[in-house]
From TrEMBL:
Residues 132-308 form the CHK kinase-like domain. It comes from freshwater metagenome. SMART domains: CHK. Gene3D superfamilies: 3.90.1200.10. This is Unannotated protein.
């Protein structure tokens, strides 16, 4: 087993909660320069966090007891691979874990939004077992995916997204980063996503068919064959996409956004992130009638960075992106029957939010 220590802090890998010992925690704090000589960790308690939000990794809050006064944090968060075999297969197939580690190492400190401070991270050199130890930012105000984001905060978040994209806009550095930060159009997505769609859509028709907007019912029959085309249309202008820019991955420190979860960072058009955020994180009632306004907020901010925009093309890409992003509601319907009543309602709500975004903007015409 070859452990690659990405930050040089001597971090040991976690396989389960039982590995979070006082000795392990003391190593993390001392290796990251946060624990003074003569102070030790005498005990540790943990609590699972993020259940129902993050499914590809285990997240736990670690609360150390120290032997004396210290500047070391009162708590921190650890992240390591899921113990669910199906989700672990997905994470490995899509090469997700290494993306987050490299982002924290190489990109986080220059990002225009706040991120959690990283105390240490490592990955095995011969597989994808990994561990990240990072700042506990649970005291910031979180957003809720299902409640949705209001218009003012959505505009704030889209402006911050534009600042982030502007840093990488058509950057020559991106070509050398795609081994880790994969392009949106890649062979794995082309093979896997149509399969997941065709598995999920029959359940959509069975359990939610009576709720679908009539104007977009035809998406079920054409979406899978359009995956390569849609992703190909979301590849330029090129930037570094967050890939999972949604309410559950965003907090606020007063009015300043704090962004987490960088496992889906990839290279492609920034309009993917824009369409994903608007169609997934704003309720239909709040979003309806404001799509153009929200997209223009993002584009206006890009222009303040000296970037020249083809607004007609960006709007077309927005329509492509919201059609593509219906997949998140559809693929989760594969397990609809196993959900309790509340879980089924949540799946329906997220699916309909995406489909009504497509319907309200007559977006299906761009992929038909």
């Amino acid at each position: 087993m070859a452990i690659v220590d990405l930050l040089g802090t001597g971090l040991g890998l976690l396989a389960s909660e039982s590995d979070i010992t006082p000795q392990w925690v003391e190593g993390v704090m001392r290796g990251s320069g946060n624990l003074e000589d003569g102070v030790t960790v005498t005990a540790v308690s943990t609590e699972r966090i993020g259940e129902g939000v993050g499914i590809l990794s285990i997240l736990q809050r670690v609360i150390p007891t120290y032997s004396g006064a210290t500047k070391a944090p009162k708590s921190f968060v650890v992240k390591y691979p899921t113990d669910d075999a199906t989700q672990r297969f997905t994470a490995d197939a899509l090469v997700l874990y290494i993306r987050e580690l490299v982002f924290y190492r190489d990109c986080a400190t220059s990002a225009p939004f706040k991120t959690a401070k990283c105390y240490g991270q490592a990955m095995e050199g011969d597989n994808t077992n990994f561990t990240i130890a990072m700042e506990d930012i649970g005291h910031y105000r979180g957003l809720n995916q299902l409640e949705g984001v209001n218009l003012d905060e959505s505009k704030n978040l889209l402006e911050k997204l534009a600042d982030y994209h502007a840093m990488w806009w058509n950057s020559p550095k991106l070509a050398g980063m795609q081994d880790v930060f994969q392009p949106l159009l890649n062979p794995t997505y082309e093979a896997v996503l149509p399969m997941l769609w065709t598995q999920g859509w029959p359940n959509v028709e069975q359990y939610a068919g009576h709720l679908l907007p009539d104007s977009v019912r035809g998406i079920g029959a054409i979406w899978a064959d359009k995956v390569s085309w849609m992703l190909g249309n979301l590849m330029t202008p090129t930037t570094l996409c967050h890939g999972d820019y949604r309410a559950d991955n965003i907090m606020f420190d007063a009015k300043e956004p704090v962004v987490i979860d960088f496992q889906l960072v990839g290279v492609g058009s920034g309009m993917y992130d824009v369409g994903y955020f608007i169609s997934q994180s704003i309720s239909t009632e709040v979003r309806r009638g404001h799509d153009q306004e929200l997209v223009d907020t993002y584009l206006d901010r890009l222009e303040t960075h000296g970037i020249t925009i083809d607004r007609a093309e960006m709007w077309r890409q927005y329509l492509v992106a919201i059609c593509f992003c219906v997949t998140y509601g559809v693929t989760t319907f594969g397990g609809f029957a196993e959900q309790n009543e509340r879980g089924q309602q949540l799946l329906q709500d997220m699916l309909l939010r995406a489909l009504y975004c497509v319907a309200d903007n007559d977006a299906l015409k761009v992929i038909s």
